[in-house]
Amino acid sequence: MSLSHQGKPRVEVLPPDAGLPVLEHDLRGRPDAQAALLDLCQEEARTPFDLARGR
């Protein structure tokens, strides 16, 4: 979401072939699944993201 030149919110939806990475982690059956999920979430939160480039 960004602001247009008129100061109103504007949402730009990327096309399906934009190539956004989607990572899957199978934590089923792991005794430490909750801790592993928390680690993955924290790692993702620290990863820089450029909204202008979609990466």
Judged by helices, strands and strand pairing, the structural class is: alpha+beta
User: Strand content of the residues, in percent?
Assistant: 5-15%
Largest sheet data: 2 strands, antiparallel
In round numbers, the mean pLDDT is 83
- Regions with pLDDT < 50 over 5+ consecutive residues? none
Number of strands: 2
Spatial sequence of strands, sheet with the most strands: 1-2
Q: What is the C-alpha radius of gyration, as a whole number of Å?
A: 16 Å
End-to-end separation in angstroms reads 15 Å
Specify the helix fraction band. 25-40%
What is the number of helical segments per DSSP (H or I, 4+ residues)? Answer: 1
Could you walk me through the main structural features you see in this protein, from its secondary elements to its overall organization?
By secondary structure, this protein is α+β, with helices and mostly antiparallel strands. It is 25% helix and 7% strand. It is built from one helix and two strands; from the N terminus they run E-E-H. A two-stranded antiparallel sheet has the order 1-2. Strand 1 (2-3) and strand 2 (9-10) form a beta hairpin. The protein is elongated and about 50 Å long. The relative contact order is 0.15.
Chart the SSEs and their pairings.
Layout: E1 2-3, E2 9-10, H1 33-46
Antiparallel strand pairs: 1-2
